[in-house]
From TrEMBL:
The keyword Transmembrane helix applies. It comes from Pontibacter silvestris. SUPFAM superfamilies: YVTN repeat-like/Quinoprotein amine dehydrogenase. The chain crosses the membrane at residues 5-23. InterPro entries: Quino_amine_DH_bsu. It comes from the Bacteria. Keywords: Membrane, Transmembrane, Transmembrane helix. This is DUF3352 domain-containing protein.
């Protein structure tokens, strides 16, 4: 597996391992041989190089060599070089012998579980003959090696064993060429090929293609696409192989040039189409490539994306997928309305056990006809199921459920399978499909917040280096795709994947594209390390802002967005209960005196005819709503009874039409709900619980049903409807107290929605919204004083960690319940734990000690950021700036608000 990883990400480096091997005496024949004719036809790749010194020097100038040298395979390789060089006589070295030679390296799949290499080395001059003969004699005399020879079909094969390392290789000579491989099976196959008389080149059709004559090209790379699936089959799960084999049938073979730049690998060239019947190429039969226009709708958190740019999108279907169904005619007609672009995207997953969100994009060539056909399909389904179709208004978009099994597969072919049902939404000229509604909601949020490829500086820089038009493109962000890759590989290979994690994640932007040009595909592979401005291997804090106030600051920096331009701002409250708004540029914005301390955070809602953001929050017995000038909205604040001591606020909009519900709970476990005009909602005045709430109520929308999820401190769980009535299966007990909220992974209905809660004593309980416990697992509790709570991600809430605290020791677990941090602190008092995740490895754990008033920041590797603590008496607020690739942290201490800037080391 380490060899496989090296092959995928810096495959060219494997050429250097030629020096691993020794060589036999040359035959006297001087007949010239085309080395390409010796390569067996089952080779997956063949790499040709002619300037190894320049290649190694260039690698050393970049970070590629440093990254490669960290791998176990590279360290093992260096050990072998040392032994071989020690056997050479005098000052002669292998690298001098091998330099300036046209050397081939062929890569093969041997059996069902291994990759092997063969090296084809010409010997041209008298000096090379002399070195070769002396080198072989020295190896035979060295105590570090043993040598055995045997005849195979007229050729003398020599087996060399390194007695110190236990490694072996076999070689033989043929017409002034030496063929070397660690696999005797592969050597014998080459001998049999030679004995078949007429030798033909594996690269037939590319004989005159030699990119090595061009500047800055370090290798020719021949790709045998017919054998490529055999390579993937070594480590990809069996269920994925049909898709891999089908996609690989786009081309038969190809020859690419290899170029290296600072932190980049480029391979460009041409590939011949696979013209066999039912191949991917034969089915899609593209005429011209198409541009990637969906970039404005692809979230930054995209892990893997396959893009199909075709003149006739219907050719993806391969066949009439919908034949025989009651709505087949409608689907056949609907498939004709799509044009130019179809894409399948997988979002970043947050642990290895969960499937990544999956989204299909299809460009509409005829929007009006598609709308008519979708309406007819919805009516047909409603009549058949005798219930009206589910729709949800989400902002300005309408999400619709089409309960058709495998709808994308029926429209676009088997590559798009895996949709038990489909939620759809039209965004501009694109129809977007997802198997669950929460995926579409998150996507629409990303589009609204401009967290998409088209607005990302880093992603736009990457796309500028890729083909602007293509027929098929595969994009991978290896950091975002880490858990997707982990799920895709076999269990045996996962450990070795982890060993190579550093290299894979550093070169995180990958694209493979094919664009039809006359009778071939122009082919481009880009492997790139995302650009970093002023990147440092050490984190340093720089002060971006310091503001002093007249009174002590009592609240944490509360995060908000500017109502006009959505820039990131904060609000702080002082000891006399005055709120101060600090804008993104560090100036003082609005000021508002609210009479008592703000409870919890500030919610922001789009309200009013201008749909601008308003700020909603609660104090001891009031609900406040103010505009971007700090002025109270009409009817606000809402005055609750003096006896009510508010704990939390939840604000949500059932129908996304601006008719918000404001739900608060008090210290006795009573729930009060109001609409945005201040009208008390029946059933909630109050809705009495048996105990105080462990966290704020959570509103969930599942399959057209609204659920208010309530966790009580005594461990009981309630699921309530809009009227405050309990859903069947609730309440039920988690059998232990709870001190934190739950994490919801919503499905298509109540049964398929999974909720994760963590009890005070470390039981991780997963249940659905029918009140059925699906899983219960106990985390290790080292002592009776150890307490646990669930910590949701602070910036978007799409993931969580679990914190265990025990006598000053804090241990954090990820969603797979694996330990990610273990630290001991000065005091035994409870710590405030925060978790920020800005995608991929951009993670920050913040732990605040309230006694010493210190905050500790850690990166994803649990390393202290900045090598120092921060003076802080409240939780911190952190923002990530993608353009500058840095982080902004706001903290309060005494009367001061401070903004610190920092970067994370790679």
């Amino acid at each position: 597996m380490p060899k496989r990883i090296v092959f995928f990400f810096i495959g060219f480096v494997v050429l250097a391992s030629l020096v691993y091997y020794g060589f036999n005496q040359l035959k006297d024949s001087r007949e010239e041989v085309d080395l390409w004719t010796l390569v067996p036809e089952d080779a997956v790749l063949v790499v040709e190089t002619n300037n190894h010194t320049a290649l190694v020097e260039h690698l050393r100038e970049t970070e590629l060599w440093d990254n490669f040298s960290m791998l176990p395979a590279a360290r093992h390789f260096e050990e072998n070089i040392a032994y071989l060089d020690s056997a050479a006589a005098g000052n002669q070295r292998l690298e001098r012998f091998l330099d300036k030679k046209d050397i081939l390296t062929s890569i093969h799949v041997e059996g069902k579980n291994d990759i092997q290499f063969a090296y084809y080395i010409p010997i041209s001059t008298v000096g090379e003959h002399r070195f070769y003969r002396t080198f072989i004699e020295s190896i035979s005399k060295s105590s570090a090696f043993t040598e055995e020879t045997h005849d195979y079909k007229g050729f003398l094969l020599t087996d060399i064993t390194n007695t110190r390392l236990g490694t072996t290789f076999t070689y033989f000579s043929y017409h002034n060429n030496v063929i070397v491989s660690p696999s005797p099976v592969l050597i014998e196959e080459i001998v049999r090929r030679i004995n078949r008389a007429k030798l033909t080149s594996i690269a037939t059709g590319f004989e005159k293609t030699n990119y090595l004559d061009q500047p800055d090209v370090y290798a020719n790379v021949f790709v045998n696409y017919r054998a490529l699936p055999d390579l993937f089959e070594l480590f990809v799960r069996d269920e994925l192989m049909p898709q891999v084999r089908y996609l690989a049938s786009l081309c038969q073979n190809g020859k690419l040039e290899l170029k290296l730049e600072q932190d980049k690998i480029f391979m460009n060239g041409f590939s011949n189409p696979e013209r066999l019947k039912d191949s991917f190429h034969s089915n899609i039969a593209p005429v011209k490539p198409q541009p990637l226009l969906i970039r404005n709708y692809l979230p930054i958190r995209t892990a893997v994306m396959m893009h199909f740019g075709l003149d006739e999108v219907t050719r993806l279907r391969q066949e009439a997928q919908a034949e025989g169904t009651a709505y087949g005619t409608i689907l056949d007609s609907l498939s004709q309305t799509f044009s130019n672009e179809v894409a399948l995207a997988y979002m970043e997953a947050y642990n290895i056990t969960s499937s990544p969100d999956k989204i299909v994009y299809a460009h509409l060539g005829n929007v009006d006809l598609a709308g008519t056909l979708l309406s007819r399909l919805g009516e047909h389904l409603s009549d058949a199921r005798k219930k009206s179709a589910f729709t949800e208004q989400y902002g300005s978009y309408t999400i619709q459920l089409l309960d058709v099994p495998e709808l994308p597969a029926q429209l676009f072919g088997k590559l798009f399978s895996g949709f038990d049902q489909s939620y759809i939404v039209q965004v501009d000229d694109y129809l977007i499909f997802a198997p669950d509604i929460s995926t579409l909601r998150a996507l629409l949020d990303d589009i609204s917040d401009e967290n998409v490829w088209g607005k990302s500086v880093a992603q736009k820089a990457f796309l500028e280096e890729t083909l602007q038009e293509a027929n098929f493109s595969l994009f991978i962000n290896t950091v975002n795709a880490w858990y997707v890759l982990s799920r895709s590989v076999t269990d045996d290979d996962r450990e070795e994947l982890l060993q190579n994690a550093l290299l894979i994640k550093r070169f995180n932007q990958v694209s493979l594209q094919f664009a039809k040009v006359e009778k071939q595909y122009y082919t481009s592979l880009v492997i790139r390390k995302q650009e970093r401005s002023s990147t440092s291997r050490e984190s340093r804090f720089t002060v971006g802002l310091t503001l002093s106030f007249g009174n002590l600051l009592y609240s944490r920096p509360l995060p908000i967005q500017n109502a006009v331009d959505r820039s990131k701002e904060i609000v702080v409250q002082d000891s006399v209960n005055v709120l101060f708004n600090i804008t993104a540029n560090g100036s003082l914005g609005w000021v508002d005196s609210v009479g008592s301390k703000v409870r919890g955070t500030i919610k922001q809602i789009e309200y009013g005819p201008d749909k601008k953001l308003r700020h909603v929050f609660v104090t001891e017995n009031r609900i406040h709503a103010i505009d971007n000038q700090g002025r109270s909205l009409d009817n606000f604040p809402f005055n609750l009874p003096d006896s009510v001591n508010v704990q939390h606020l939840a604000a949500f909009d059932y129908n996304k039409d601006g008719d918000y519900r404001l739900l608060v709970d008090d210290n006795l476990g009573n729930l009060y709900m109001y609409d945005i005009l201040g009208t008390a909602i029946p059933g909630w005045q109050p809705r009495r619980m048996d105990y105080r709430l462990a966290a704020k109520p959570q509103h969930l929308s599942v399959g057209g049903q609204d659920v208010i999820l309530v966790l009580l401190e005594n461990g009981y769980v309630y699921a309530l409807n809009r009227n405050g009535e309990t859903y069947p299966g609730f309440p039920f007990s988690l059998k232990s107290p709870v001190t934190s909220g739950a994490f919801a992974k919503l499905g298509s209905d109540l049964k398929r929605s999974e909720i994760t809660a963590v009890t005070k004593y470390g039981a991780v309980v997963v249940f659905n919204l029918q009140g059925k416990v699906l899983q219960r697992e106990q985390l290790i509790r080292p002592s009776k004083s150890a307490m646990f709570n669930l910590v949701p991600e602070s910036s978007n809430g799409r993931s969580f960690i679990i914190a265990r605290q025990d006598q000053g020791r804090v241990v954090l677990f990820d969603q797979d319940l694996k330990e990610v941090l273990d630290k001991r602190y000065v005091t035994s008092a409870p710590k405030i734990v925060q978790y920020y995740h800005f995608g991929g490895d951009k993670k920050v754990f913040a732990i605040t000690e309230t006694g010493p008033q210190k905050t500790y920041l850690y990166n994803s590797k649990a390393t202290l950021i900045g090598d120092r603590t921060l003076e802080s008496n409240q939780p911190v607020t952190i923002y990530y700036n993608e353009v500058a690739n840095n982080y902004s942290l706001y903290k309060v201490y005494g009367r001061e608000l401070t903004k610190l800037e920092f970067k994370l080391p790679e």
